[in-house]
Design brief:
- It is a single chain.
- The chain has about 300 residues and is an alpha+beta fold.
- The chain has a domain at about 85-295.
- Helix content is about 60%, strand content about 10%.
- It is built from 10 helices and 6 strands.
- It has helices spanning about 1-25, 75, 90-120, 140-165, 165-175, 180-185, 190, 215-230, 235-250, 255-295, and strands at about 30-35, 40-45, 50-55, 55-65, 125, 130-135.
- The strands form 2 sheets. The chain has a 4-stranded mixed beta sheet, covered by helices on one side.
- A hairpin with a 2-residue loop joins strand 5 and strand 6 (about 130-135).
- The longest helix has about 45 residues, at about 255-295.
- About 30% of the residues are buried.
Length: about 300
């Protein structure tokens, strides 16, 4: 179980690395890079910023010098670099979108690696009632493995947005959790039970018994993190992109602060219950996994 959450923490670190690298490229001040939520367990002072490790590996953040304010004047003065608001619109968009791009790039690279392993094993993929050998159409399968994350990231955010607005979605997350079921499905029943037969959609899951389960988990977690973060609601990356590219260009400066605050409250109203329900469900699933295994009879 710890290894599985290590994969999740790794993909979150990849996401935050994208924001960090983009901010440093445009000389934006970085105050903190946090992996996980909750109180800081470990703090590493680095070159002008600090890296913190936190106990709940279900997210992360990069704290930037966003814009001048009286409340953060002392902290900003001690942080080298300029404010993000001083950058051009396209530079701010790259900083906010770099995390999603890094997740998609990582998933694409992992997909190509899985394709290479499957090609070397001469794997057979089941599509409906037909079987296809990967070596028969290598370019097609390699392209699918690399482009699948981008295709899912185009379609999935809108389906997730519709689910967020549904009260049944909260009940489902309270019962099942958010990321723990995804991790378990990512490892695949075929990886844990060799006799299982995959029935869900993604063709790569049919050969999960032949591939390292860690790669499959990282592949789908990268896609999921990118799809969730591109939803145009604050405080997600998609919400920040919406602010930079549309709201700040259309709304008059006199009403900009109130408009951005209203959008933030709207996003938190929709996303807050989802994340709280997801974390409660995840902790419940972790508790079930730990205590079910520990109380299981041995012999």
């Amino acid at each position: 179980m710890m290894m599985r959450f290590g994969v999740l923490a790794g993909m979150i670190a990849v996401h935050e690395l994208g924001h960090f690298v983009a901010a440093r490229q445009f000389d934006v001040g970085v105050q903190e890079v946090g992996i996980g939520f909750g109180p800081a367990l470990l703090t590493y002072p680095l070159d002008g910023y600090r890296l913190t490790i936190r106990p709940i590996p279900l997210g992360g953040f990069v704290s930037l010098k966003s814009r001048p304010s009286e409340s953060s004047a002392a902290t900003d003065a001690a942080t080298p670099g300029r404010y993000l608001s001083e950058c051009a619109v396209w530079q701010q968009s790259i900083v906010y979108g770099a995390g999603v791009c890094m997740n998609l790039l990582a998933s694409a690279c992992i997909g190509l690696l899985m394709f290479g392993l499957a090609y070397r094993s001469n794997a057979i993929v089941t599509l409906g009632d037909r079987e296809r050998r990967i070596r028969e159409h290598p370019i097609r399968w390699a392209g699918f493995a690399a482009l699948f994350p981008i295709l899912i990231c185009i379609v999935l955010p809108w389906k997730l947005f519709r689910k967020i607005c549904s009260h049944t979605f909260l009940r489902q997350m309270l019962r099942e959790g958010n990321l723990v079921p995804l991790i378990r499905r990512g490892f695949g029943t075929a990886a844990e039970n060799k006799s299982a037969t995959a029935t869900h959609a993604a063709p790569l899951s049919d050969i999960s018994a032949l591939l390292p389960s860690v790669l499959i988990t990282a592949y789908f977690l990268g896609v999921a993190l990118a799809a969730i973060n591109i939803i145009p609601l604050q405080p997600l990356d998609g919400g920040h992109l919406l602010n930079v590219m549309l709201v700040e260009q259309v709304i008059p400066a006199t009403a900009l602060v109130e408009t951005k605050f209203a959008l933030l409250m709207f996003g938190c109203t929709l996303l807050g219950p989802m994340f709280v329900a997801g974390i409660i469900g995840d902790l419940y699933q972790i508790w079930l996994l730990c205590f079910t295994r520990s109380s299981a009879p041995r012999g």
